[in-house]
């Protein structure tokens, strides 16, 4: 009988201790010294990375603007007018915005629908060239360093749209038949890699879906300027 | 008596396994836990970075104002020189070298379920984002940005590791695309049945919402472009 009583006493004591430990545990979680999820730490780290890259960009911009201002001042000392510098700026911006014809070494890629028969139950979409395929290949070429790009002779700028609908492609509002011809001025070897490497998207299209992808290089590739007039009706400079 | 003990043993064993499983599944959900001290360190680092950034921004603004004042005072009132200035302004707007504003839409991509990582699919299938931008251009967008990166002539998306880089800068989820243009035209073009947003919603289970705004602002492109291979030629 007395043995049982000791056991019960021990049990009460232990439960009491357990209770206190539990409360301590809970308290420490809710305190500021507690734990945070790794996910939230990762989010802060991402923000820090974005801020850091933005800071580097700002520093670059500041340097650019300083140089620009210095050039204005020098020109002012030399010729008494900043017009020559501004003219030069204008021509440079016309070049990079796609408003001049360009020549340079580069690569031309021809893409056309697959000529193989579709297999039983296969989706016919698989063997047709889509907008996303063209967009993907252009993005790959840009990663490889393409500077100036045209599709079927239409200069590609940030406002260009690509619409593939079956056998035709529409770009900058003009429609062309197959094949789709992408021309790009830039480093030839890197661009060649971008469309022939076994892990490239173009290779996948060619080997798996049988999409026709041919390319040839050119020492003097000419790419015309963007033909349409650009007028902004909605976009304004921020004050 | 012995039988009871064996049953007790088995149950204790089961409870042990269940507790372990429970803890594991919590780890999976939260990605594990860490001390909040680390978090506070990072917070203060972020804060000091932001303060530095504000300083740099005001420095840049001062420089730009200086250049503007110089142009104001040095350029003559004559037609040629004013035209030249207008042309430069237009090129700067087009090349994204200035912050721009206008009416437009914001497309936000969010996971339907807070805990799931559905939007990560957009990181790996970034051609979907390219496709959205392409559709915006087809409906007359005049300026586009993704997160804080302006979309310009030589913008490309690049996946390095599990991070997405645009204009050479990292961008993180949640992604949003801003476009200045006619909000109604752009919205209806994107909401087209079986269009790219439909595909993102249906096949990738991502919540893609479109918000129309009277005015939104686009960040500036912060890099300088130099051609190494392309030479301008006479028309």
Q: What descriptive keywords fit this protein?
A:
heterodimer; A: 239 residues; alpha+beta; five-stranded antiparallel beta sheet; three-stranded antiparallel beta sheet; 10 strands; B: alpha+beta; 7 helices
Structural shape of chain B: elongated
What does the main sheet of chain A amount to?
A: 5 strands, antiparallel
Task: Give me the secondary-structure category of chain A.
Answer: alpha+beta
Report the portion of residues of chain A in β strands.
15-25%
Oligomeric description of these chains: heterodimer
Strand order of the largest sheet of chain B: 4-3-8-2-9
Q: Would you identify the regions of chain A where 5 or more consecutive residues have pLDDT less than 50?
A: none
Secondary structure: number of strands of chain B: 10
Quick gist of this model?
The complex is a heterodimer of chains A (239) and B (235). Chain A has 239 residues and is an alpha+beta fold.
Description of the structure:
The complex is a heterodimer of chains A (239) and B (235). Chain A has helices spanning 2-30, 38-79, 83-96, 131-143, 188-196, 201-209, and strands spanning 35-37, 101-112, 148-151, 154-155, 162-165, 168-171, 174-177, 180-185, 212-223, 236-237. Chain A has 239 residues and is α+β, with helices and mostly antiparallel strands. In chain A, the strands form two sheets. Chain A has a five-stranded antiparallel beta sheet with strand order 4-3-8-2-9. Chain A has a three-stranded antiparallel beta sheet with strand order 5-6-7, with helices on one face. In chain A, β3 (148-151) and β4 form a beta hairpin. The longest helix of chain A has 42 residues, at 38-79. The termini of chain A are far apart. The mean pLDDT of chain B is 87. Chain B is α+β, with helices and mostly antiparallel strands and 235 residues long. The longest helix of chain B has 39 residues, at 36-74. In chain B, a hairpin with a 2-residue loop joins β3 and β4 (149-150). Chain B is built from seven helices and ten strands. The interface between A and B is large, with 90 and 94 residues.
């Amino acid at each position: 009988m007395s043995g049982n009583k000791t056991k019960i006493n021990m049990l009460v004591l232990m439960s009491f201790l357990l209770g206190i430990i539990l409360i301590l545990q809970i308290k420490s979680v809710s305190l500021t010294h507690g734990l945070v999820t790794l996910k939230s730490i990762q989010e802060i780290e991402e923000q820090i990375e974005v801020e850091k890259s933005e800071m580097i960009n700002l520093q670059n911009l500041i340097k650019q603007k300083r140089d620009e201002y210095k050039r204005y001042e020098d020109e002012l000392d030399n010729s008494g007018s900043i017009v020559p510098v501004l003219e030069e700026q204008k021509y440079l911006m016309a070049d990079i915005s796609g408003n001049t014809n360009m020549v340079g070494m580069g690569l031309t890629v021809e893409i056309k629908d697959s000529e193989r028969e579709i297999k039983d139950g296969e989706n016919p979409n698989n063997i047709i060239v889509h907008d996303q395929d063209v967009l993907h290949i252009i993005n790959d070429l840009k990663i490889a360093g393409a500077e100036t790009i045209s599709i079927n002779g239409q200069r590609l700028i940030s406002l260009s749209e690509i619409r593939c609908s079956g056998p035709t492609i529409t770009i900058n509002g003009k429609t062309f038949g197959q094949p789709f011809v992408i021309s790009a001025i830039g480093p030839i070897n890197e661009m060649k890699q971008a469309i022939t490497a076994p892990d490239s998207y173009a290779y996948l299209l060619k080997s798996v879906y049988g999409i026709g992808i041919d390319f040839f290089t050119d020492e003097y590739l000419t790419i015309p300027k963007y033909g349409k007039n650009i007028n902004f009706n909605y976009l304004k400079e921020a004050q | 008596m012995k039988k009871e003990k064996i049953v007790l043993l088995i149950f204790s064993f089961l409870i042990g396994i269940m507790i372990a499983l429970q803890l594991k599944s919590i780890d999976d959900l939260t990605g594990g836990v860490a001390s909040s001290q680390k978090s506070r360190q990072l917070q203060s680092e972020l804060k000091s970075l932001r303060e530095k950034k504000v300083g740099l921004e005001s420095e840049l603004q001062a420089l730009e104002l200086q250049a503007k004042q110089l142009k104001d005072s040095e350029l003559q009132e004559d037609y040629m020189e004013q035209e030249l200035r207008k042309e430069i302004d237009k090129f700067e707007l087009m090349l994204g070298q200035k912050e721009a504003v206008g009416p437009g839409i914001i497309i936000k991509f969010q996971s339907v379920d807070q805990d799931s990582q559905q939007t990560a699919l957009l990181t790996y299938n970034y051609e979907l984002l390219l496709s959205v931008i392409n559709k915006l251009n087809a409906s007359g967008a005049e300026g586009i940005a993704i997160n804080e990166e302006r979309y310009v002539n030589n913008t490309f998306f690049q996946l390095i590791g599990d991070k997405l880089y645009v204009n050479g800068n990292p961008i993180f989820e949640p992604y949003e695309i801003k476009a200045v243009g006619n909000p109604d035209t752009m919205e209806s073009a994107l909401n087209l049945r079986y269009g790219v947003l439909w595909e993102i919603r249906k096949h990738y289970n991502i919540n893609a919402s479109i918000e129309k705004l009277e005015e939104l602002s686009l960040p500036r492109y912060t890099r300088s472009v130099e051609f190494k291979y392309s030479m301008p030629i006479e028309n």
